[in-house]
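Researcher: I'm comparing several assemblies side by side, and this is the next one on my list. It has 1019 residues spread over three chains. Same procedure as the others: predict the full complex and return the structure.
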Amino acid sequence: MPDSSPVAHRHARQVQKNMQQGTIVSFTTVRHPPAGFPVQPRVIALITLDDASMILAPITSGAPMIGARVFPRMQLSRINENHLRLYDIAFEVLTPKSVPLDVSFPGYLLALTGPSGVGKTTISRQLVSMFATHTENVPILTTRKPKKGDDGEYKYISKKEFEIMRARGEIVAAVDLPSRSEERSYGYLATDIEAIWHKGMLPVVITEMHLLESLAMHYGRRSILSFGLLPPGRSKRAMLSALLHRLRTRGRETEEAMQDRLQNAERDLAFFKEREDLFDHLITNDNLDSVMALFQQKVPSLQEA
Amino acid sequence: MQKSAILGFGRYLPRNRIRIRDIAEQWSQEGLVMEKTLGIAEKTVPGHGEDTFTMAFEAATQAINISTLASSEISACFVGSESHPYAVKPTSGMLVSALTLHPFSHAADLEFACKAGTAGMQIVDSFIRSGQIEAGLAIGSDTAQARPGDALEYTAAAGAAAFVMGSAKSKHAIASMDRTLSFTTDTPDFWRANGEEYPSHAGRFTGEPGYFHHVKTALEAILETAHVSVSDIDHVILHMPNVKFPQQVLKSFGFKKEQWEHGFIVPTIGNTYSACSPLGLTYVLEQAKRNQTILLVSYGSGSGADAFLLTMLKDGKPLPVDEREKQYISYADYAVSE
Amino acid sequence: MNSPIFLTGYGQTKFGEWWDKGLRDLAEEAMTAAITNANIPSTAVDMIIVGNMIGELGSDQAHLGSLVSSLLPHHPPALRVEAACASGSVALHTACALLESNRAKTVLVLGAEKMTDASTEAIAAALMGAADSEKDRPSGLTFPGIFGLIAARYMHEYGLTREDLSLVSAVHHRQAVENPFAQFRSEISPEHISCSSPISDPLRLLDCSPITDGAAACILSTTCQSSIRIAASQLATDTLSISDRPSITSFTATQKAFQEALQEAGITRDDIACLETHDCFSIAAVINMEDLGFAECGEGIEIYRKIFENPEASPFAVNRSGGLKACGHPVGATGIKQVIDTAKYLKTTNTRFGAAHNFGGAGATCCLHILEHTAL
């Protein structure tokens, strides 16, 4: 490319979208960089970003390794012959946190995402009971008060405790959801997930869109086998009415709360389309047995079960 | 007029460090003696590809994250530095684009030696109080230059601090900016002419007529106009060109260790010029408790001092830990890194 | 093919650094050699296709169709094609299309490249045009860098060692000893290759094909018969940047082009007696063996190991000419030179089918030709 202003200007526009963490696919040290670049050897990596796109970029510090996690930085790439400073993205290698293991573990998570009422809890319960030696549910940490109908899927803590754990980095994915009654935070503890891996089992997480995104950012998209759960129905209207029916049958909330959930459900359904990249499979939950059969087919850890 | 407040803050320090004793030994001075005299152990050094813009970008990104605002809600960016990458082409403009601030943003670069960062805070404060903007960014960032072999070489360091400011009534408000004043003169203590690579300074003249006169005058003035005494202040941060100068001022006013220790960062970072006292403020904001009072007085050669009184509106929270390991470099690598 | 396309004649310059020959001189030399070899009057040429990549940046010269055509008294219609390092084979492919459609009956296909008139930096920058300017260049990558990434990943996936990789260039150099047109004709040991200066880890200097001047020409005709016919000509394309591919340790364009070519020729790979394959970097040769289906994934090196240990033991000839590494790689000429070397091998050994595998960039364009030799 000519080393000109229009070229630099167009390139600068896409630097923002690449400011994500990622994983090194391969790297090389170019001993003699091209004219215009600083004279010393340049480490360049092919990186898979957490949104599953790939980028070629320099590694600015840290010892690169295939599979290492990297963190984005803004860097002065070079100064052109007209003294224009060209900035670009570069990546630092994160010092790996060693997870001491004496048991080989699946190394991935099974995530179930879907609108309220679609049956995530029922499905995850059934899954864990059918494949009890291979899977375990990850408790959801929450600051909301226990409700009638809750059945052991949550760990309840105070907002203050949540914030302390969050600041300490003990929570791997967190979301703060405002609602009519109270602002509630949800998340998962790194130790809960790692404990399941230590046992050689597959952690099953029930998520919503923000938590799923955060999990993908933290562990890497490829570490999540992500299932989107859809209510039965061909049209969106049919799906929403199926959800409403389920919510009413569940009898766990007020009419007002259900309207909240329905609004969120519309947004959740749109999310499946907008963020196709975050889902490996979309499953319609109309029949528990067929859903279980599908899991057995599509989840590597369950295929030997 | 409503008050402004800090809604988010962030900082960036390069991971490279050089030990003061290694610089001293280069010039055949006794390393440990120099360290003891200066009271500084090491300073930050910009890494390959780091400059005032990249550091400001990182600090501002963190500040925006802490504020939980969307970047497009911020419509002003004022950056103070003595080492803007260009003489003409503003760092603030590059940041508006790189941070995806609101396209209709006010932006300009500032220079007033080491107080350019706090000058930015004063400008954003008044934009908010006048209702001209909802939220703005004030940044101090520098990759300080020092002539090899000059005394300043031991202290001139690199770093950036950024503040997202908005209304004190916002639920994200961390500390309100209650009062600010400035004291300005023309004093030739330290300068760098256009085209010169390194600054010049007037030796001991930088002390009494420079730093001490301006910092003390501004400090006295703000305490008086606010009807506040030294004992009312929970945290004090002064500009730190070295260890001795600020310590002398603190002692003369009777400040106690608990009041100044949280923001006294120069011993392990060095003097980051326009980022210096703002960086000290970021450390205080992490640890101060609700309702505590903070006094900040910065100093810029040429000369002037900006003084601020802030009140914490909620307990401080620590910034995310920087997990990168510090990397100590040799004098040879330090000399080449420009 | 509708009517058979014959390789009526061929000729090339020696490949090397030619300080006293410019692009026009090289083209003229190869063209004259080919016309003489074909034993036809020059006026029998009714069309010229030129394959060239960096004429503009290396010699300030575009418009090579006209330049080459002007060298013949009757100025036949001419055009130039470009597909990076596959320019030569793509020129042949274009000629086949024009011959099949009867737009021409005898086509001169000429590949030429002048790489020593501009500075090495300028040439390296020009060669990066074979990659993605927006996605691959800004990070400071060079072409050896792109293949360095590929080699590092391949070694990670399959455990290929540095010592293994050095067998490739060692084999190519040994085989070029017999080739009077090659740039380098002396043997180099694998140890020497392993110790050559690092260019883009893990690739070293002697893993990389050189900068070379040269030209090669073929005359394809539907009327002037010969013992060599083009049995297949297939073109396949992949993404320009390796950052847009699911895997960087195999090239789907090669797989596709070869599959289609075998089908077009109506043969299987066991019928192939000799192969000229595109070894722009040693790791490419290893990957090519797998993509062409002559080895399983991760085992491409075994073919080279066999040839290195006992040249006669190999089931088929690979890069007998010395490949790009030892012959040199004047970019636009390589694809044509590969076909020439395949034809020569088939004739001297009296074997039937040979394949010439040429690709551009990081396997972004692959053009494959299968030749059939029938003794007249």
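Model: For your comparison table: Chain A touches chain B through 21 residues (CB under 8 Å).
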